[in-house]
Amino acid sequence: MKKLIALVLACVLCLFACCALAADLKVGVILVGDETEGYTLAHMNGIKAAAANLGLADNQIIWKYKTPEDQTCYDAALDCIGQGCNVIISNSYGHQTYMVLAAEEYPDVTFVSMTGDFAALTGLDNFKNAFTKVYEARYVSGVVAGMKLAELLESGELSAEKQPNSFDADGNVKIGYVGAFDYAEVVSGYTAFFLGLRSVVPNVAMEVNYTNSWFDIDKEAAAAEALIAKGCVIIGQHADSTGAPAATQKLLDAGNVCYSVGYNVDMLPTAPTAALTSPTNEWSVFYTELFTMIKNDEAVPADWAKGFDADAVAITDLGVSCAAGTAEKVAEVIAAIKDGSLKVFDTATFTVGGAAVTSAPCDMSFMDWSTMTAIYEGETVEAIVDGAFAESEFRSAPYFALRIDGITEIK
Amino acid sequence: MTVSHEPLMRIVKRGESPFKLKLLVRLAAVLLALIVDALFIYFVTGLDPLAVYTTMFQGTFSTPMRFSWAMRDLASLLLIGIALAPAFKMRFWNIGAEGQVLMGALATAAVMVFYGGKVPNAILYAAMLVAAVFAGALWGFIPGWFKARLGTNETLFTLMMNYVAIQLVACCVNIWRGQASGLGKLNMKTKAGWFPQLFGQRYNINLMITVLLVVLMYCYLRYSKQGYEIAVVGESENTARYAGINVGKVIIRTMILSGALCGLTGFLIVGGRDQTISTTTAGGNGFTAIIVAWLAKFNTFYMALISFLLIFLEKGAGEIASAYNLNDFASDIIAGIILFFILGSEFFINYKPIFRTGRHETINKEVA
């Protein structure tokens, strides 16, 4: 009889334990790097801030650091589930093909593949993508760089007589950009940066140098040095290390006229006088929304993308070298983006092949490029809406891949 | 009276140690390792050593899933060890397992990309297997042939072949990834060429083939004529020649076998584990397996034990880092200390230290 009672008690306890577990949030976080790498650090800080907002305890988050974009990611997801996680987040683009396999097998667990681009196409209720509209912040960082460039030109510190190398044959000022890979996310980013810069200084020409890696200090430094050697005055970047700002600072100190716009993190500690600002993501906005939705049992959208409208993007503190009046101009531009009067990819501000863009069909399919077949069939949408390219509206991950006039890619 | 020049301690090679002694030395080593590790854990990381050991154990044993992953990773490591055994027994320093595995993996991936979904699955698997074994064998044959015919240095040759293989893989991955930033899983939609689950376990095929090869390689090295030839060539090439063994032929044949088995490992990794390829597909196991093969003195059953130990330590270190939010360098030190003592114990099994004593001195004097 005692045994029976014990058994019943044990069952009841288990039942309670299960209920408590279901009601509680436990998050597994799969990170491509660790706190030593800006991109991952930004995600970690966002998740920690969101956890603090919702009062999550430390043991409600399991961290998986330095997870490469391979089978390890799938293992890490399953291991988190084994430890009771009901939300799995991965922070790198390439994690998504492994996350989706786990999502198919565990329909009760919510999977969020940050920066991924096919959640809506899978038909899975538990697989999500999220990205910020960071191109808005890149546009603003471009404005900051443009203000600096205008100041340099006005003061005569930069002129065709003194630095002939920094002007091309048409009299455009040369600027440079260190990009990771030649695909839509980077193209969207550098185009926004360029358009922001050109909104202040109309005669500019930009060169993009690719490193084929998201994080490589040496390659990024080398790319920045090569661009500055060609005469580039501003170095923007879409790569995760401090390589480019450090190289720019070194060459500025050596007497060149060159300034850096970083990414993700404040580059002032690395480049105290060369760094102007960095566009950043405020991931805590998304993570707080995500945790709240799951706690309240609300449906998480398959694609989440917000920008300045929700303060999900920002630029870091302006550097000491920024031109006078930059802060006011930045506030003005951000306000215009917020109220919709300024559209980053306004078709009136750029041309492709010398002509204005009136139509930009975008295929949303997720491709297997090795066999040239679609893994997930998507619609082809018309991205030009009301005279602007509607970035991050049809899915959270960027799809702006037009190569506009004024920008040259070096491959 | 003469002054003794006997050093404080001498090292003397033991004969064949009795089993009891071997066991005792190894147990002492593990115990010492745990004590030293406990000091490190307590004083450097400030954690409770017993809790850390429990966590380490959990890295492999806490759930059936983790155990299955450990077995899967063990299979890859052990299989490369088995592949290396005949070459090393022949005293042919095959440092090229990493490249031979990668070539097998690349051939498998290429067949999956080009023929996936176009031919029946059975034929696809067969083609993947044949291509992988052939590619691995080729990567073994080339340095083997050069050594046998031209007397080139096989250590450098096989090492350099690794880099050629890595670059070939990097090149193909770059082509196949197209406009994406990474390759992802191959044949994601059709799953063509992905191994099926067997008996409800995802990695059973890899594991069963490995177990089979443990037995086969043991028998090959110990009981076959070719195994004997390998042993003779390894002991002395001149003796082998005197006995009428065609040394060049044995070298080439053994390297083809070694490379082919590495290629087979590549096939199992791509088809059964990763379903994709990258330059890290072999993951350094091609080098770790050298330790496995050497420590076990080419006995494949010991190799299984040593592979298990290495995988257990690796999983344990990973779990410690994750559970205690510890820098992975610290957790690697914890695992490394254990490995150090276990490797060190082999020394004390083969050699014994003799300390200078008064008695020894008198004996020496009498002899003098």
Q: Largest interface by residue count? A: A-B, 34 and 31 residues
Distance between the termini of chain B: 11 Å
Order of helices and strands of chain B: EHHHHHHHHHHHHHEH
Number of strands of chain A: 22
Average pLDDT of chain B works out at 88
Q: Judging by the overall fold, what is the CATH architecture of the largest domain in chain A?
A: 3-Layer(aba) Sandwich
Number of strands of chain B: 2
What sort of overall outline of chain A do the alpha carbons produce when their principal axes are compared?
globular
CATH class of the largest domain in chain A: Alpha Beta
Trace the largest sheet of chain B across and list its strands: 1-2
Low-confidence stretches of chain A: 11-23
Low-confidence stretches of chain B: none
Task: Tell me the β content of chain B.
Answer: under 5%
Instruction: Give the distance, in angstroms, between the N- and C-terminal Cα atoms of chain A.
Output: 78 Å
Tell me roughly what share of residues is in helical segments of chain A: 25-40%
Gyration radius of chain A, to the nearest Å? 23 Å
Protein described:
The complex is a heterodimer of chains A (about 400) and B (about 375). By secondary structure, chain A is of the alpha/beta class. Chain A has eleven helices and 22 strands. Chain A has two domains: about 140 residues, 3-Layer(aba) Sandwich (Rossmann fold); about 170 residues, Rossmann fold. Helix content of chain A is about 35%, strand content about 20%. The longest helix of chain A is centred in the first third of the chain and has 22 residues. Chain B has a domain of about 220 residues. The model of chain B has no long low-confidence stretch (mean pLDDT about 90). With about 375 residues, chain B is mainly alpha-helical. Chain B has 14 helices and two strands. The chains are: A alpha/beta (about 400), B mainly alpha (about 375). Chains A and B meet through strand 2, helix 3, helix 4 and strand 18 of A and helix 3 of B.
